[in-house]
Amino acid sequence: MSSHDNSAGLSAGATLPEQYDSLLANKVEKLQQLMADFQPPAPEVFASAPEHFRMRAEFRIWHEGDKANYIMFDQATRERIALTQFPVGSTRINELMQPLLEAVCEHDTLRRKLFQIEFLTTQTGEALVSLLYHRQLDEAWKEAARPLREKFGVDIIGRARKQKLLLDKDWVTEELTVDGETWRYNQVENSFTQPNAGINEKMLGWAKDVTTGCSGDLVELYCGNGNFTCVLSRNFDRVLATEISKSSVHSAQINFEMNNVENVTIARMSSKEFTQALNKEREFRRLSDVDLDSYNLSTILVDPPRAGLDPATEALVQRFETIVYISCNPLTLQDNLKTLTQTHKIERLALFDQFPYTDHMETGVLLTRKPVTE
């Protein structure tokens, strides 16, 4: 799935809001250069909020006596930089950072051998805080952590090697608005979620727009927790989605239920296995209740990891009339397009600034099959 966390590239959380527009313009120019050989239309550019756009963050902890600091590392010098605020982080993260750490440091059971704190927040103000330790945790830790939950109105998780202690739950519920409609998503601690909620809303809106008017059924590879699946289910008769992660499949099923999505079938399998199933090369028990022949599979959405599509998946994708490709790596996208544009034409191109102040580019491409020439 797309948009792997890029927090390390944020230069210790520094922002330069006055430079944001020029930095984004540089990304647009770079994308146009990378895509030039494919003669795409001008990219649609979706800007981020210049500050407080990240819904999640993780910080290493540096101890000095009975005190501690959040630290990040400068990408150029590897210099350790202490943080009291994180301008790219959500307002909720910034509200919690210092008061929470001060409360942790007041209690030796909470402070001892703590090496990292992670925050997962939502646009509606929910927050989940994970405390990571180089020691095993016990009931005494739970008793010490419980007042933090009450004081700050957050869920607390303690993690150590092969150990995870919950005070209540390990998830939050995010709300995203797309074309005036609200979608609710279960987001689990330590699982992938899109970090920039505002840009995620724009990506979902774009994907919904480019598939409006598509007929038949949708195949979605790498569907994750159903982020795109829920919204795009409105545009298709049925959706057949695949995802290899068991926890992501579980979250997706919760999200389908929360959003009253009833026309999606999800199968826990890889793109390679799905190709084998379509080609009738293998039978899978996971598809025993799915009649693949009954689907009118005309559109495919792919949202692959940074490595992009392997050759077998490229060949699978080329079988569809319409391709929607969401990419977190423009270099592997460029490589995949060398193959995909042999059979398909780029109709629309989009740049989503998921990670401002970094070189990261999130890209969307709509491709349609070229007419067959005699």
UniProtKB/TrEMBL annotation:
Gene3D superfamilies: 2.40.50.1070, Vaccinia Virus protein VP39
UniProt binding sites for S-adenosyl-L-methionine: Q194, Y222, N227, E243, D303
InterPro entries per record: MeTrfase_TrmA_AS, MeTrfase_TrmA_CS, SAM-dependent_MTases_sf, TrmA_MeTrfase, U5_MeTrfase_fam
Coiled coil: none
Active-site residues annotated for this sequence: C328, C328 (nucleophile), E362 (proton acceptor)
EC nos: 2.1.1.35
GO MF term list: rRNA binding; tRNA (uracil(54)-C5)-methyltransferase activity, S-adenosyl methionine-dependent; tRNA binding
Catalysis performed (reactions): uridine(341) in tmRNA + S-adenosyl-L-methionine = 5-methyluridine(341) in tmRNA + S-adenosyl-L-homocysteine + H(+); uridine(54) in tRNA + S-adenosyl-L-methionine = 5-methyluridine(54) in tRNA + S-adenosyl-L-homocysteine + H(+)
GO cellular component: cytosol
UniProt record, GO biological process: tRNA methylation
Keywords noted in UniProt: Methyltransferase, S-adenosyl-L-methionine, Transferase, tRNA processing
Family under the similarity heading: Belongs to the class I-like SAM-binding methyltransferase superfamily. RNA M5U methyltransferase family. TrmA subfamily.
Function: Dual-specificity methyltransferase that catalyzes the formation of 5-methyluridine at position 54 (m5U54) in all tRNAs, and that of position 341 (m5U341) in tmRNA (transfer-mRNA).
Record protein name field: tRNA/tmRNA (uracil-C(5))-methyltransferase
Organism from which the protein derives: Parendozoicomonas haliclonae
Lineage: Bacteria, Pseudomonadati, Pseudomonadota, Gammaproteobacteria, Oceanospirillales
